[in-house]
Design a protein that fits this description.
It is a single chain. By secondary structure, the protein is an all-alpha fold. It is built from 11 helices and 2 strands; from the N terminus they run ααααααββααααα. Strands 1-2 form a two-stranded antiparallel sheet. Strand 1 (209-211) and strand 2 form a beta hairpin. The longest helix has 58 residues, at 150-207. It is elongated and about 85 Å long.
Length: 337
């Protein structure tokens, strides 16, 4: 398909260089996505089984909240791709290059979207597990308040130690699952970030910026529903990933704060030692959601992307100026002849 695409673009159909680059990157993304999906299909299934085992301790109320979020975004995203494919089919123009190729790009986008949603679902479940640990620690703090009846307190003492050890094991399992999640989805996250970065730049450049004896805005394309929908889709898709990772990381960090709050409110030496060990365990566990190369998925990523998009748009505009720099000279020569 890449061969046929470039063969036709260099022959009969005349399309500008940025559009050619964008189309080639889309198909390379599709090839990369299919390959890594096939390679990591086995580890993904093992990861889902691990998350299923960990999340068995979650209460029914947490499952209901997660179910609403997961079903809403997945169903909306699927029907958005369906609408996108219909829009391309019924508004076929030369700008779409080839009808089947554009439909295939929608299929690639749908595949990438489903994997992104699977990643967000895993992060949300792990976040709910971290939140459940926080809630259990809050409940333990109420039980650890020294009761006037000493015998009652001594009866509760072994139960508190067993509960703390259980929370430590649970936290360690969740932390190991976070590392497994980072390893399995890291390449796909890099591809998703690169695709969103590319799509936003080239869609804005191709649909908003035009040349009419100088740079001007294409008012018709700015009001185009398809153009606006695509931009909102890619921005929302990336924002959902960043939101899930940022809130999941904050929930994991909150556990350390809760442990120190519990430490300040108790006097039992043995329980304090267990809480200190739990605190050291949290310090040694990195529960940051990241991709390959140490790229942390958090709010700073969106800021960096906005700055980079502005920079590369300016570069493309400069190349557009260079392309039309000789227009006036050519027109003058033709007029003289």
């Amino acid at each position: 398909m890449l061969y046929e695409l470039n063969l036709n673009l260099s022959g009969n159909i005349k399309i500008d260089v940025p559009r050619i680059i964008s189309l080639n990157l889309s198909f390379l993304y599709g090839l990369f996505l299919v390959v890594i999906s096939y390679i990591f299909s086995g580890p993904q299934m093992r990861l889902l089984q691990t998350i299923s085992d960990i999340s068995l301790r979650l209460p029914q109320k947490s499952y209901q909240k997660l179910s609403k979020l997961i079903h809403a975004k997945d169903i909306f995203g699927f029907f958005f791709h369906f609408w996108l494919a219909l829009t391309l089919y019924f508004s076929y123009t030369e700008k779409n290059v080839f009808g089947l190729f554009d439909i295939f790009r929608i299929f690639i986008s749908l595949l990438g979207f489903q994997i992104d949603m699977l990643y967000i679902n895993c992060v949300c479940v792990l976040k709910a597990c971290f939140k459940e640990i926080n809630n259990n620690l809050e409940n333990l703090r109420e039980l650890m308040i020294i009761n006037p009846r000493q015998n009652y307190h001594e009866q509760r003492h072994p139960f508190l130690l067993i509960k703390l050890n259980d929370l430590k094991k649970q936290h360690l399992m969740i932390s190991d699952t976070v590392q497994m999640l980072n390893m399995i989805f890291s390449l796909h996250l890099l591809a998703t970030i690169a695709l969103s970065f590319k799509q936003i730049i080239f869609y804005v450049y191709s649909n908003v910026i035009q040349w009419q004896n100088g740079i001007s805005l294409n008012q018709d394309e700015i009001n185009n529903a398809y153009f606006i929908s695509v931009l909102i889709y890619y921005f929302t898709r990336l924002t959902l990933i960043v939101w899930a990772c940022e809130t999941g990381k904050n929930e994991a960090i909150k556990i350390g704060t809760t442990i120190h709050d519990v430490l300040n409110g108790i006097s039992d030496v043995q329980i304090k030692d267990e809480l200190n060990l739990f605190s050291l365990q949290i310090l040694h566990c990195d529960n940051t959601f990241s991709a390959k190369g140490g790229l942390t998925i958090d709010a700073t990523l969106l800021t960096a992307m906005v700055n980079s998009i502005s920079t590369y748009l300016l570069i493309l505009i400069q190349f557009l100026f260079m392309t039309h720099s000789c227009d006036s000279k050519t027109n003058a020569i033709n007029y003289t002849k």
